[in-house]
Design goal:
With 68 residues, the protein is mostly helical. It contains three helices and no strands. It has one domain: Helix Hairpins.
């Protein structure tokens, strides 16, 4: 997910997306323990996506970004 994609989303959409990504990350970690994950690089990508989403939400909270 690119940062430009996050610019078009509202705060509620970002929070829902964050929860979805956290759940996806949790599932990958669980499957990794079970040994059924083929692509471990996906774990890193999801972690970075979560960080981007949290950054945008924090920018809204601090007033750096304005609510549309």
């Amino acid at each position: 997910m690119k940062k430009t994609e996050l610019n078009d989303k509202s705060i509620t959409e970002l929070k829902k997306l964050e929860m979805d990504k956290i759940e996806e990350y949790r599932n990958i970690r669980f499957n990794e323990v079970l040994g059924s994950v083929n692509d471990l690089s996906q774990k890193k990508v999801i972690r970075h996506d979560i960080a981007r989403i949290k950054t945008v939400l924090r920018e809204y909270e601090l007033g750096i970004r304005k609510v549309k």
